[in-house]
Amino acid sequence: MNDEIRKYVISILVDNQSNVLTRISSLFGRRGFNIDSLTVSTTNNPLYSRITAVFKGSEQGLHQIVSQTSKSEVVKKIFVLDERKSIYRELLLLKVRCDKNERTGIKEIVEIFRGKIVDLSKQSMVIEMTGSTEKIDGFMDMMSCYDIVEVCRTGITGISKTSHSWDDDMNEDELKPLVTPVD
């Protein structure tokens, strides 16, 4: 096994019920892994949620996390997202203190990075941006010379570029809960 420490992004399909996030995230902590980024939301089926976790570790550590996580009864599927075959995005909301003299410079930076100004007042503006972590980091570096009031970042969420879906590998018994009855 490779002992090189690298970043891994895993996508976990879980039952959409209370305390699931705590149960999954505690598995990481109990095994000594720090979660760098964590996002969760319901899927197109309200019975399930998708957790995207980013952490650093060795290949052996990855196998340990996947093995331990898959044993939980609330976990339906786990995918390790390959950065070459997946799309990762992050959302940033940034509040910057500025006066009328600084607005044009900030607006130019926002346009170069393809962001949006979503709120403007006499003393500040709020900028929205989505993109790769590298893009968000680059934007934050450019904005560092301004008076940043507040930063909110979602962390990474990701999806595979392939036509593979969550239920492609599930057998018929596992697929039944994915079908929502229509009245």
Structure characterization notes:
- The chain is an alpha+beta fold.
- Helices cover 26% and strands 39% of the residues.
- The protein is built from 5 helices and 9 strands, in the order E-H-E-E-H-E-E-H-E-E-H-E-E-H.
- It has helices spanning 20-30, 59-70, 103-112, 133-143, 172-175, and strands at 6-15, 35-42, 48-57, 75-81, 86-97, 116-120, 124-131, 147-153, 157-160.
- Strands 5, 6, 7, 8 and 9 form a 5-stranded antiparallel β-sheet that branches. It has a 4-stranded antiparallel β-sheet with strand order 2-3-1-4.
- The relative contact order is 0.19.
Annotation keywords:
183 residues, alpha+beta, 4-stranded antiparallel sheet, 26% helix
Radius of gyration: 20 Å
Spans of at least 5 consecutive residues with low confidence: 169-183
Separate helix tally: 5
How many strands appear in the DSSP assignment? 9
Topology:
Layout (H helix, E strand, L loop, with lengths): L5 E10 L4 H11 L4 E8 L5 E10 L1 H12 L4 E7 L4 E12 L5 H10 L3 E5 L3 E8 L1 H11 L3 E7 L3 E4 L11 H4 L8
Antiparallel strand pairs: 1-3, 1-4, 2-3, 5-7, 5-8, 5-9, 6-7
